[in-house]
Write a structure and sequence with these properties.
The complex is a heterodimer of chains A (about 325) and B (about 270). Chain A is α/β, with parallel strands linked by helices and about 325 residues long. Chain A has helices at about 40-45, 70-75, 90-100, 105-115, 130-140, 160-175, 185-195, 210-215, 230-240, 260-270, 285-290, 300-310; strands spanning about 1-10, 15-25, 30-35, 55-60, 75-80, 150, 180-185, 195-200, 205-210, 220-225, 245, 250-255, 275-280. Chain A has two domains: about 1-215, Rossmann fold (3-Layer(aba) Sandwich); about 220-280, Alpha-Beta Plaits, CATH 3.30.70. Chain A contains twelve helices and 13 strands. Chain B has one domain (about 20-270). Chain B is globular, with a radius of gyration of 22 Å. The relative contact order of chain B is 0.13. The chains are: A alpha/beta (about 325), B mainly alpha (about 270).
Chain lengths: ~325, ~270
């Protein structure tokens, strides 16, 4: 359980986090969504007691991080994948962390096995790819078998196989009753992973909402239609007041009528349908609708959105 | 690398009794120190070159021995020349022990495991200080013993039991260790490797030059408080100019190191990691 109340942080005159309040509960994966620069990492660091808030308060399992008697036994966090000394081996990196919290040395090899790094345990982290560093960072979060887990952008740099692995890991951890809080700017990834999302923009809470509700709320639902006589169907649909877009791949995206209405209309024309597929809005689109003007770095967000589409393919 | 299966992780378990403490952090810092190849290399270089430079310089002195040297010849200081090289490597290591954590970002993992930052600094100081002291004393004693063996007749040599020799040797090693802690304190304040090493070398090497540019009366009064001068006063039996008494000097240097570490500790708590 993580509880943030009125969390505020500024760096000089720049407000990074602005009166942010939210709860992250156990047993589900909670996504922490926002464009780059929205304050996600700052918030994570404040949860961990690394950055001190200027106002407000955040607790983990009812306590300030600073007061946890055995921090790694209660909280595991992946803040930056590359935050590993390049000259240290994977095993030594985990070992020094384990020792600081009296965690048995064999646990180090256990978690290396869990993340699939056993074979490179004795290699220096400087030689690791970003994906391997992510796995090592994830191994570190599991060291103390903690009930609360934080992941800042855990799928960055992972290949599709790795992304699926992280997704399953996060879900598995939540299923075991743990509190899982995972930040991402990859909205589509969160749609697949998170049960609930905390959305922020410019350091402010925009919404805390179950993922499926967020998707349902969106006005961006549409139906994809394919037909050998797509032009005829398009005209008919527009005649009924639907909005249609002919996509590059030849399919027609229809907003307005649902799949039942479209199918019935097609039958009355009649045109043959090759596909009639309702599409829920991607979380990304729902997110865009919600955040609107609170996006700070438009260029970066767009890059992120493109990357996310590629990532889930 | 491919691990498709969902890992089986045991159910939440009871926490160990008490809380993390000094013994856990000492163990962790010890692992940190010896798990870096660069640290081990720096220590090895300190040993090999520290003793090696001492031996070379002493052998050189012996090779060009002339009887005119006898008055005022200090066989102890001659054999300990390597310490002045050693202070550079030990200082750089003291900087990197701390700045390396900031440079790589591991400082956040360190503080996530142990949020009591002053305790982390204390553990780091103890572990590094102990290692530095052991290495420095080995350099000092080995240099001295090797050097005296090299100073064969007609050159004069000395023994540890002669007046001031043990002080110079043991004190020289202690000086090296304190210089390392001084550097560690600087790095805790400055955090960046390049900046902290510059500050360290500036104080040690450029400080005396700057002070000599001051009016002579002022320079004489200030110079003896500079770290390098304190070191010289410990190692050289008769400096021939105003110095702090050797043990007083070491105490002053200890004071500098403690002051820097305390300031560093306060800043560790105040600043975001």
């Amino acid at each position: 359980m993580i509880e943030a109340k009125g969390l505020t942080k500024h760096y000089g005159s720049k407000l990074a986090v602005d009166q942010l309040s939210f709860n992250v509960r156990p047993g589900v994966v909670t996504g922490f969504l926002g464009p780059n620069g929205a304050g996600k990492s700052t918030t994570m660091r404040m949860i961990m007691g690394l950055d001190a808030p200027n106002a407000g308060d955040v607790t983990v399992n009812g306590r300030h991080y600073h007061d946890l008697p055995w921090p790694l036994h209660e909280v595991g966090a992946l803040l930056e994948a590359k935050a590993i000394h390049p000259g240290r081996t994977a095993r030594a990196h985990l070992r020094m962390l384990a020792e600081a919290n009296h965690i048995a040395p064999r646990r180090v090899d256990e978690v290396l096995g869990v993340v699939g790094l056993s074979a490179v345990a004795g290699q220096r982290a400087g030689k690791f790819s970003l994906g391997m560093s992510q796995r090592l960072g994830i191994a570190a979060t599991l060291l103390g078998d903690p009930e609360v887990l934080l992941f800042d952008e855990p799928v960055n740099g992972l290949d599709p196989d790795g992304i699926r692995w992280v997704r399953n890991l996060l879900k598995g951890l939540a299923r075991e009753g743990r509190t899982v809080f995972v930040s991402s700017h990859l909205m589509s990834e969160m749609a697949l992973t998170a049960d609930e999302v905390v959305i922020i923009g410019r350091g402010r809470l925009i919404a805390q909402i179950p993922t499926d509700e967020l998707l349902a709320q969106s006005s961006q639902r549409y139906v994809r239609v394919r037909s050998p006589e797509i032009g005829k169907l398009k005209a008919a649909l527009e005649g009924e007041g639907a909005t249609t877009v002919l996509e590059e791949d030849g399919s027609l995206s229809v907003r307005g009528p649902d799949e039942v209405a479209i199918g019935e209309l097609a039958a009355t024309i009649p045109v043959v349908l090759h596909e009639l597929a309702p599409q829920s809005a991607s979380l990304e689109e729902a997110f865009m609708e919600l955040t609107g003007d609170s996006i700070e770095y438009h260029g970066e967000l767009r890059t992120g959105a493109v990357a996310s589409r590629e990532a889930v393919r | 690398m491919s691990t498709a299966a969902i890992p089986a992780i045991g159910p939440a378990k009871a926490l160990p009794p008490g809380r993390y403490g000094m013994s856990d952090l000492l163990r962790s810092e010890w692992t940190k120190l010896r798990s870096l190849r660069s640290t081990m290399w720096t220590l090895a270089i300190t040993l090999v070159l520290g003793i090696g430079i001492s031996a070379l310089a002493t052998a050189e002195t012996r090779a060009h021995w002339s009887s005119t040297q006898v008055p005022g010849f200090d066989p102890t200081a001659t054999s300990l020349i390597g310490l002045f090289f050693g202070q550079l490597t030990v200082g750089v290591l003291g900087v990197r022990v701390m700045s390396g954590e900031y440079g790589s970002g591991t400082i956040r993992a360190t503080f996530a495991a142990a949020p009591l930052r002053p305790l982390v600094l204390a553990a780091k100081t103890l572990v590094f200080g102990t290692v530095a002291l052991v290495v420095a004393e080995i350099v000092a004693f080995a240099s001295f013993l090797l050097g005296q063996a090299l100073l064969s007749a007609p050159a004069i040599h000395t023994t540890l039991s002669s007046p001031g020799a043990l002080r110079a040797v043991a004190g020289g090693g202690l000086y090296l260790c304190l210089i390392g802690l001084f550097a560690l304190g600087l790095a805790t304040i400055i955090r960046h490797t390049a900046g902290a090493i510059s500050a360290f070398l500036g104080i040690l090497l450029l400080g005396p030059v700057v002070i000599r540019a001051l009016p002579a009366s002022l320079a004489d009064k200030t110079e003896m408080f500079m770290p390098d001068h304190i070191g010289a006063a410990v190692v050289i039996l008769h400096m021939g100019q105003e110095t702090l008494p050797p043990w007083t000097g070491l105490l002053v240097l200890f004071g500098y190191a403690v002051a820097l570490l305390v300031i560093g500790g306060v800043l560790l708590v105040r600043r975001d990691a």
